[in-house]
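BACKBONE STRUCTURE TOKENS:
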Amino acid sequence: MFAELLALCTFAITQPLLDLFGKGVEQFALRGASPVQIVLFGLGVAILPAVGIWAAEVAISVLGQRPRRAVHLAWIALLVAATAVQAARPLVAGPVLVVLAAALGGLAVVAYVRATTVAQTWLAFAAVAPVGFVGIFLFASPTADLLHDDTPAAVVDVGAPAPVVMVVLDELPLESLIDADGALDADLYPNLAALAGDSHWFRNATTVAPATWHAVPALLTGQLPSPGTSPIAADHPESLFTLLGGAYDLNVIEPISRMCPTSLCEPRAEGADVWRGLVGDAVRVMRSRLSVHRSSDDPVTGFAELEDRNPDEGDAVFGDLDVAQPERFRELLEGLEDGPTSLHYLHLLLPHVPYRYLPSGVVYPGPTPDVGRSNIVHDKWDPQAWPARLGRQRHLLQLGYVDRLIGALTAELRRIGLYDDSLIVVTADHGISFEPGQAIRSIEGQSLTAETTPDVLWVPLFVKEPGQTTGDTSDDNVLTIDVLPTIADVLDIDLPWPVDGRSALGPPRTTTAKPFYGNDVSSGAVAVLRKVDIDGARFWPSVLSRSIGEFLPPGGPDRLWRIGPDADLVGVPVTEVAAGRIEATAAVLIEPERFEDVAPAGERPLLVRGHVPGAGPDSAVAVAVNGVIAATGSTYADIGGAAFALIFDDGYLVTGRNEVQLYLIR
């Protein structure tokens, strides 16, 4: 019986999991898994489910063989049905899929009972299938390269050694930082502006890929994306880490890549944390694959780059963002040390979704799927205007928190005497678009459009040389593949391998063409699409037209809260609003209980959502919290009718019960 269970578990559990995890090397990087742990994970996925079921059957056998056989037949039905759900969901979903899976499970039991010998013989042969799937996982999948991650450091002469501090932000378009004239907004982002004041700011810098899988290796290698590669040292042996690894002490924090080989950078996670994370990931992936709803189809879309599925229930592919990100940032700060030969690197997964931070660091829960992101499978915004506008507002609020972290970093560097002498690089791997009806990053094989190109390509790039105290702004045609050559230039290192980039401090390019490789995550591993050349001069006016100077009203930092219609109402007590301007409505709040007992600390219920019976889409609305207008916005069409979603500052909340009322603006 064990061989039968092993065979059925192989097709229902083992093959799907090993296929996904084999393609998702970044998941093992995220969890800090060692080669031994990866091997044990593969063996465990292949054996433990069947062992657990078989042990349960053995325990049932104390009641007799008939109960055990009944349980065995039930497991046959369930495992066949589970296999059917995963195989058929691309074609059917919902109740039809339930009926189909149940029918196939029942037919499997009938076939087993009526042709026991034939079924047992077939299952006995199928029981050897796990060997093949484990073999593919360990020797032929992208993850297999992590098992021999022993890339050596390069031998180079560092002519001008200096400490290197590099922070790669995630999903940050340049336009989120600048006003309509292209100047960095110091009111909203004072710490980034202060860094720019001491740095070379390359305002015309663009990424070469829209997904971390290829965008980060381009930053670290100086080379354009290559098909069939993963963000690991085995595929990219020539990187910043191997360049400096022989002469520098490395303090490297990579959450979703393994570009620094284990011979130079040991995994940071403790064994128990690794297993807790991997087991949780496996359970969540299987739960997604076994869903009969097509909206949950293809967990690889989130598995490979990373949409947060449900942070409130711990379903984030990145882990619990409000814990993981600051913890990684603290690791960077704690690892800072004075000395001319140290490299401190952090890929910070912010301001990447999910949006949960205010600039102050206050955390609020967000919905899953996010507002305007119901079409997760195709990575697109809903075509209505307000959800994408709200999404950008929350992105900018989270960016304010990133600015706060950058300030903490520069303050710590100054405190330990490392700031002045360091080479500091702050950039982002790619941008994100907030155009209604458009792809967010064109990572599922979609082509860039005129609307999304300026949002996805242009990213910030600040380079502070050792001893530099005066900043300058360059509009030279710079690419993210120029970052490594620029670092080598500052440190006076002759690169021992060819690169596609060039030092941003050297002679500028004579062309405005910007190479860009689209990505497709829909097949699991991230595929590189054909290169296109973007004319930077053509799209620069679009970057300026999408700047926060055009998106936000004039004013100070509080203008982040005034993006809706009739924004002058924000902060005004309801009793002081002119008669007839607003009208109370019987809105149906989603999770109204969150406002009944607000704690003085912890997550704050700041995103208020619901439906307005009888209202149409694009109706102007205002939400009052404890009698004061806290936010304005517009309704949008949803399954339940006219929906609304608005975010407000946590200063409107009080400890305990809070009164929340929605108004139509007349």
